[in-house]
Each structure stands twice: as C-alpha cells, then as structure tokens.
Amino acid sequence: MDIDRIVDTALRLIDEVGVQALTLRMLAETLESGTATLYRHLRSKDELLVLVADRILGDVRVPSEQMDDLSWREAATVAAHSFYESLHRHPHALPLLATQVHVGPNGLRVKERLIRLLLSHGFTAGLAARTYTVLGQYVIGLAIQQHGPGTPRPEDQVHLRDFYRSLDPAAYPATSAAADDLTSVPLHEEFRFGLELLLHGLEQARRTRSEVPAAESSRY
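Structure (tokenized):
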C-alpha cells in the first residue's frame, strides 16, 4: 500500500460521508487493512487531511502552453475556473481548503505559477501576493457558499423568490422589484460575474503600480 492510494481513498470517503465522519478506522477497513498500517504512513488524521487538501489542488491543471499567449486577466480567469471546478467536484472537502495553509507540493506549484505569471505582467511583488490571496479567497469562499454542505437547494431558491415577492412593496420596494434576479441567476454566472468585477479592480491596481498595504499573513 502506498500513500497515494491512501489519500485517494480518503478523498473518496470524504466525498461520500464528509470530513467529520471520516475516521482512520473507516479508512483502514475500506483499504482492507489495519490502522497500524496507516500509522506507518501517517502520524494522525490531521496529517491525512492536509494531504487530501493538497490532492484536490493537484487537480488544478492548466497546461503552460495554454497560458503563454494570454493576458494576465485571461490567464487568471482560466486558472480560477479550473480551481473552482476542482472544488465543485469535492463539496464535502471544501472546509479543508478554507482552514489550511496550502504548503504541500501541489499548493506550492499553484502559488508559484500564478505569482510568477503576475510578476511577468508588471505586478509588484506585493500586489502579486495580494492578488493571489484574494483570488484564492474568492474562489474558495464562493465554492463553499454555493456547493458546501448545507447549501440551499434549487427548490429553496423558489421559496425564497416567493417570499421576496410577498413582501410589502411599500416597505421593501427595491427587494420586491429584484425578487427574480436575486434568486434566479445560475451559479456559474454568479461566479463569472464576481470574478470579472474582481479582476477589473485588480487591473486598476496594476495600472497604478501602487503597493497594497501589508496585512496579516494569508492562509492561501
């Protein structure tokens, strides 16, 4: 048994039962092995979860040749969509991406590639770092809101629309008028719209070449 098989099996189980329900005993039984065998490869469940998160980041694959002739905004859009789709495939694992520092080999590969791309397009080191951070926060945050455990179902949106429509238009005229638009935008369009707004703001920052004030260290 190798570590790749252990991590892949753990991710499959998380997809089925969630992070909290996964135990090393469950993992060992699925692998038709014992927990003692797992402990030869892992120190704890926490270490396993770090490896699982990095495994998900390994799915974010954009061929270098696909990026060569793109502007930084086009390249960032491709990378963000690839990241979003990887997260979308593993909704029960999304909390791992939000709570961990991504310093595994795949996480470092993604980080290095995007920051290097930004630097090559005239970003200062400070602005490149902040751009990488805010893009990661946007993609992960929206993926959790849209696809994480407990997110609203399509029928919930219908009920919410009907609720907005039932509000007193004299007290809530704007909400009543926007009832359909608040509850009918497809998730992929919501993602695209927000990403475009974010990239537009970052382009303005790049053009002015202004340093973004230092802040707390990023999780990403």
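Residues 125-147 form the longest helix (23 residues). The mean pLDDT is 89.
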